[in-house]
Amino acid sequence: MTGPTFSSLARSTTLREQALLTLRAAITSGRYRPGDHLGEVEIAERLAVSRGTVREALRHLQQEGLVTAGARGMLRVSQLSPAEVRELFQVREALEGLAIRQIIESSPGPEALRALRDAVARLHAAVESGADLSTKVEADLAFHLMLCELSGNSVLLKTWRGLEGPIRVVVMSAAAERREVAMAASAHLPLVEAIERGDAAAAQGVLRAHMAAAVEQLGAADTGDDPAAL
C-alpha cells in the first residue's frame, strides 16, 4: 500500500505532539483506512522524525482506540466487527441516555437549550452546504458531546470521550451513503425538542431509534472504496 503523503513536521511544538496530530488526522480523514498497517520506519521517514517519536504517537493512538496491535505486535488502524459496532453503540446509548435524564432533571436554562439547537443548526448547515466529510463528522460528534457536557457529569463525559476513537473508526468503515443517513440533522432535532419539553421518555425513545439506525447503517461491511473520516 502506498501511504499518505506527509510534510516534515514543524518544530513549534514537541515532535511527539506533531506526530500524534498528523497521524490522528491521517486516520480520521481516511488517508489511512481501517485495517491498514502502520509501519514505524515508513512513517518516521515520511515525517522526518525518529522511530521512537512515532512509537510514542502510535501508543497514544492505541489508547484512543484508533490503532490496534495485531499478530506479532503489528499495528493497524482499528477495524470493528458488526458485533463490536453494536456493542459500541449500546454503550453510547446508555451514556447519552443518562446525560439526557440528568439534563432534564437539572431543569436546563434557555442558554443550554439554545446551545443544543445551535449545535443541530451547525450540523444541518454542514450537511446542506456539502461540506467535506470531516466537517460533517465533527458537527455530528459536537452535538453528542454537548449532551454529555450539559449533563454536568464529569465521569460520564470522560467515558464518552473515550469512545470517540472507535466511533470515528466505525464511520470511516461505512459506505458514503450510509454515513450521510446516520448523520442526518433530522434525527437530532426531535431529541432537542423532547428535552425542551422535559419529556425524558420521548427523548430516550428518539435516542434509541437514532442509535439503532446508526448501527444498521454503520455496522454493515463497506463495499465501496470511498475513504472517510468519522
Automatic annotation (TrEMBL):
Signal peptide: none annotated. It holds the Pfam family FCD. Keywords: DNA-binding, Transcription, Transcription regulation. This is GntR family transcriptional regulator. SUPFAM superfamilies: GntR ligand-binding domain-like, Winged helix' DNA-binding domain. Gene3D superfamilies: GntR ligand-binding domain-like, Winged helix-like DNA-binding domain superfamily/Winged helix DNA-binding domain. Residues 13-80 form the HTH gntR-type domain. It comes from Streptomyces tibetensis. InterPro entries: GntR_C, TF_FadR/GntR_C, Tscrpt_reg_HTH_GntR, WH-like_DNA-bd_sf, WH_DNA-bd_sf.
